[in-house]
Write a structure and sequence with these properties.
Keywords: Signal. It comes from Tissierella creatinophila DSM 6911. It is a single chain. The chain is of the alpha+beta class. It has one domain. 37% of the residues lie in helices and 17% in strands. Strand 10 and strand 11 form a beta hairpin. Helix 3 packs antiparallel against helix 5. The termini are far apart.
C-alpha cells in the first residue's frame, strides 16, 4: 500500500507542477475576481518594491538576497521568455500566458542535473526563520523526492541538515478521512501540526499560503504554496514560484478573497471526484474568504 501511495502522490504532484470541502463556501455574494496584476521581477523597480515589502514584513536579509539571486538566475537562464518586461501589468484574466515548453527547453539545455526550485522550496527559503518546528517528524515525507532531488543538485546549499528536516516535516503528507468535508481536513492538519509543534510567529506581518489537496488513499498534501505579505498602501503581495521550470511571480491583491479566487481558479478544476476540493490555509487556519472556484461546473458558489 505504501508503494502505491507513493506512486499516486508523486503522480499527483507532477501533474500539479505542470499545470501547477465545505459545501457552504463563504462570501458567495462578493464579486469574483476577473483581472490579475502581476510581475515576474525582471526590472529593478519591481524588485525594489518587493524587496522593501519583504523587509517591512520581517523577512531576513539573507533570505531576501537568496530569493532575488534565484529570480535573476532563472530569468536570465530562460532569457526572460514571455515574462512581464517591466514592473507590474494588469490582464483581463486570472491566468498569465507563459511559453512553458520554451522555458523548459532553455532551462534543461543549461542545467543537466538541476531541475530548478519549486513553490515549496522557494516559500520555505523565504520563511525558514519565521516558522518554528519543535518536534520534526519526516516519516511521511517520501513523496518529496523531486524536491529533494532539486536540493541535492542545487548549485548552492539552501538548507542545513536541521532546516532540511524541518522542510520535510512541514511538507509531509497528513492522514485524513475519506470525506469531502474540509472542516474535517482542517482539523486533521491542525492536530498534525500541533503534534509536531509547528508554529507561525509574527503571522500578522507575513504568512505561508498553502493549497492542500486530498487524495483517494486518505492523505492531504501541499500541492502549491506561496508567501503573503502586506504593502505600505494596504494591498497584499503573493510571492510564488509556479513550478520547477516555470517563472517566479508576484501578484498584487486587494484582499484575501481575491487571492482565494486566483488560486482556486488555478487548482479547483476537477469535477465528479470522490475527494474533497482543494482548500487554502493561511499558516494554520483556513484562509479568510475561502470559497470554491465559480468557473468549476460543480461549484456551489454559482
Amino acid at each position: 500500500m505504501k508503494k502505491s501511495l507513493n506512486i499516486l502522490l508523486i503522480t499527483l504532484f507532477f501533474l500539479i507542477s505542470l499545470t501547477a470541502c465545505s459545501k457552504q463556501p463563504v462570501n458567495k455574494k462578493e464579486e469574483y475576481k476577473k483581472t490579475l496584476t502581476y510581475s515576474n521581477l525582471t526590472d529593478s523597480l519591481s524588485q525594489d518594491e518587493v524587496r522593501k515589502a519583504m523587509k517591512l514584513a520581517g523577512i531576513t536579509n539573507e533570505s531576501i538576497d537568496s530569493f532575488f539571486e534565484d529570480v535573476n538566475s532563472f530569468n536570465s537562464t530562460i532569457e526572460e521568455k514571455s515574462l512581464v518586461e517591466d514592473g507590474f501589468i494588469t490582464i483581463d484574466s486570472l491566468e498569465p500566458e507563459y511559453d512553458l515548453p520554451a522555458m523548459q527547453e532553455m532551462w534543461d539545455s543549461k542545467n543537466l542535473e538541476f531541475m530548478g526550485y519549486n513553490c515549496r522550496i522557494t516559500s520555505y527559503d523565504l520563511m525558514k526563520d519565521s516558522i518554528s518546528i519543535g518536534k520534526p517528524d519526516t516519516k511521511n515525507s517520501s513523496w518529496l523526492i523531486f524536491d529533494e532531488d532539486a536540493l541535492e543538485n542545487s548549485p548552492k546549499k539552501l538548507f542545513n541538515e536541521d532546516q532540511l528536516e524541518e522542510f520535510k516535516t512541514l511538507y509531509s503528507f497528513i492522514p485524513t478521512e475519506n470525506t469531502k468535508d474540509i472542516s474535517v481536513h482542517v482539523k486533521n492538519i491542525k492536530e498534525d501540526w500541533k503534534s509536531k509543534e509547528i508554529k507561525f510567529p509574527n503571522k500578522d506581518k507575513k504568512s505561508i499560503i498553502s493549497v492542500f489537496f486530498h487524495d483517494e488513499e486518505g492523505y492531504l498534501f501541499i500541492g502549491h504554496m506561496g508567501v503573503l505579505i502586506p504593502t505600505e498602501d494596504g494591498k497584499l503581495l503573493f510571492i510564488e514560484k509556479l513550478s520547477f521550470q516555470a517563472p517566479y511571480q508576484v501578484v498584487k491583491f486587494d484582499n484575501r478573497t481575491d487571492l482565494n479566487d486566483y488560486l482556486m481558479n488555478q487548482y479547483d478544476v476537477s469535477w465528479d471526484q470522490p475527494t474533497a476540493k482543494p482548500f487554502i490555509m493561511e499558516n494554520d487556519e483556513l484562509l479568510e474568504g475561502y470559497r470554491e472556484n465559480p468557473n468549476n461546473s460543480e461549484s456551489d458558489s454559482k
